[in-house]
């Protein structure tokens, strides 16, 4: 079955679309990517998405216009990737505007902006969307959703295998070994903390909105990181919290950046960006070190994907801080770094079609595994 996956992440830079084919066993499908396209958001829309995700007050009409615009861009991405409508089903994540994990007796909730019936009508294809809702209703975090799919798509090797997505937020997947005493262990996964979110916001802050990210890590490469501040930041409550855990711009957005900029004081711009870049690597390294010390689990390789994979300074920081761990790109597994999450949502749509559960209690904390997503048909 051919499915189209659409993913727009925390960075709000646009929509990644992947057309993929799946068949065989749902837990371990045979698959291939047929096409991948990236459709950038218009600059004005990206700005509106980011501001909305930071809690900006909007009139009801403005919210309606925003969600409609997001849906139209999703449709454009789908048509760019699958102009001949080869797919039989579309899996669309939508655009996360706010994510609230469960805490202190309060249930979790998450808003992925999308007018799914409109998208189905624009594409004249069935659409599966709202993938987080069922997990949240079962008491889970609703995120991350990619780890179980990672295990199905990439599979096991001789030791624990780690996959790291470097989008706006850094999230980890841990896949058990193919053999040995841990071979029946659960797939694990959680959100480590910021990846590109603080770096991107800092670049926008210092350039007064004219530059949205540190291309090729050029600014960070000219600076030196303030290690004493990184050490202090790593002691903050989120980074000490055990998994399951999930996060987003709600925690690591503009207000968080402002606080860190105040702490860094009069450091040169290059040093600030270098510090934020090193910090993104440090939160991952700390989680992997804690995993080794507390659970005796030590991955033998770290596969990276997402936009941060193209930042050589961030990648070098990961290699330096994750000592003894082979770090390589998902490109080496024939999964383009920017395409991985869109491929996952193509798989999640296929799993919905098959009735296969897509979440995992060990990852999200949900009461049980469940079929994820809601299917809508063209009118």
Number of domain modules: 2
Mean pLDDT: 94
Low-confidence stretches: none
- CATH C-level class of the largest domain is Alpha Beta
Q: Which structural class do the helices and strands define?
A: alpha/beta
Helix percent reads 25-40%
| CATH architecture name of the largest domain | 2-Layer Sandwich
The CATH homologous superfamily of the largest domain corresponds to: ATPase, nucleotide binding domain
- N- and C-termini, Cα separation: 23 Å
Our Rg estimate from Cα atoms comes to 20 Å
CATH fold-level label of the largest domain: Nucleotidyltransferase, domain 5
Count of DSSP E strands? 12
Number of helices: 13
Which shape, going by the Cα principal axes? globular
- Beta-strand level of the residues, as a percent range? 15-25%
Element order: H for helix, E for strand: EEEHHEEHEHHEEEHHHHHEHEHHE
């Amino acid at each position: 079955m051919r499915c189209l996956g659409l993913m727009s992440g925390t960075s709000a830079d646009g929509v990644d679309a992947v057309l993929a084919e799946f068949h065989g066993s749902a837990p371990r499908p045979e698959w291939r990517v047929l096409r991948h396209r990236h459709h950038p958001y218009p600059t004005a829309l990206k700005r509106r998405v980011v501001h909305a995700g930071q809690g900006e007050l909007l009139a009801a009409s403005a919210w309606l216009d925003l969600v409609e615009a997001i849906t139209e861009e999703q449709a454009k991405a789908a048509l760019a990737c699958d102009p001949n409508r080869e797919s039989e089903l579309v899996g669309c994540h939508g655009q996360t505007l706010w994510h609230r994990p469960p805490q202190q007796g309060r249930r979790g909730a998450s808003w992925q902006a999308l007018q799914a019936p409109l998208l189905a009508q624009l594409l004249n294809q069935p659409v599966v969307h709202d993938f987080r809702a069922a997990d949240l209703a079962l008491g889970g975090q609703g995120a991350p959703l990619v780890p179980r799919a990672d295990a199905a798509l990439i599979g096991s090797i001789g030791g624990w295998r780690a996959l790291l997505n470097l989008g706006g937020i850094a999230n980890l997947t841990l896949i058990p070994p193919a053999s040995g005493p841990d071979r029946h262990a659960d797939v694990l996964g959680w959100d480590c903390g910021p990846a590109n979110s603080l770096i991107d916001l800092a670049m926008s802050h210092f350039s007064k909105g004219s530059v949205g990210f540190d291309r090729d890590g050029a600014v960070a490469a000219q600076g030196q990181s303030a290690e004493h501040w990184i050490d202090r930041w790593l002691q903050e409550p989120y980074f000490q919290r055990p998994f399951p855990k999930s996060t987003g711009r709600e925690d690591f957005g503009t207000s968080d950046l402002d606080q860190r900029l105040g702490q860094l004081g009069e450091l040169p711009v290059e040093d600030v960006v270098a510090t934020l870049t090193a910090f993104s690597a440090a939160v991952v390294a700390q989680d992997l070190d804690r995993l080794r010390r507390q659970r005796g689990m030590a991955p033998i390789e770290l596969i990276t994907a997402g936009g941060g994979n193209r930042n050589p300074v961030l990648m070098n920081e990961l290699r330096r801080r994750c000592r003894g761990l082979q770090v390589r790109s998902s490109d080496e597994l024939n999964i383009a770094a920017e395409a991985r999450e869109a491929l996952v949502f193509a798989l999640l749509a296929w799993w919905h079609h098959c009735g296969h559960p897509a979440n995992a209690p060990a990852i999200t904390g949900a009461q049980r595994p469940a079929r994820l997503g809601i299917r809508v048909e063209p009118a």
